[in-house]
Every structure is written in C-alpha cells, then in structure tokens.
Specification:
Structural class: alpha+beta
Order of helices and strands: HEEEHEE
Oligomer: single chain
Helix content: 25-40%
Number of strands: 5
Amino acid sequence: MKHRQSQYSHSQRLGVFILAAFVVIMLISCIGVQVHFNLKKEVVTARVLTTAIKRIDDEDRYLVSIERVDDKGVATAAPETVKIEDSILYGNFRSADVYFDLTQHTQAIYVFTLLGTRNGYLSTFPNIVEYRYIKD
C-alpha cells in the first residue's frame, strides 16, 4: 500500500510539471506572435472609407477600408484594408469601441498607428493599435 501511494504522488507531480510546461510554451508562443506583428510599425494619415465585420475562420473581424492622404487630404495611395483587434502589448482592449467610433465617422481623417503587414494567404491585415481624429 505504501508503494502505491508514492507512485501516485510521482504521477501527480509529473502531471503538474507537464501542465506547467504547456502553459509556459503557450505564453512564449503568444508573445512570439505579438512580437512578429510588432516588427512592422507604421504611423499613417488616412481617410476612413468603409467599415465591415467579416467572418474569417469562424471569428468576427473588424475591418476598415482606408485611403492614405497627404496634409491637404488628397489621396496618395490606393485604398487598403486594415483590422481592429485587441493588442496585448499595447494594452488595447477596446477593439469594438474603436470600430464603432470609426463607423460613425466615415470619410473623416485620422492618424493611425498600424502594426503588422498584409498577407493574403494567411488572411492577415495590419492592426490599428492607436488612432487620433484629425478632421472630417
């Protein structure tokens, strides 16, 4: 009986170790993904053209079509799509509020801080992590 009790204790410790290792690996993976998207940070002045909620990979994503503009409000590039998603590293957990604000002010000009790049194969878009209203 004594032998069985110590074997159970060993199995229990092994289970806790495996669970802890799994949690550490998941945390490192999440941080790695965030760091990857932080490799490209860009501040742009752009006009909000349209907003949409799209279902991609069984998740709702907030997408915004923007058009980069110069200081006079003249378009300088073709329209592009960006997303609004919570960002752990920037402490930005208001994606729905940001989306609603931009939806209410289409055609307005903002300064956006974007993280990430567009990848059509992976359906990824630059993420708006900060924004500041400029004018209508």
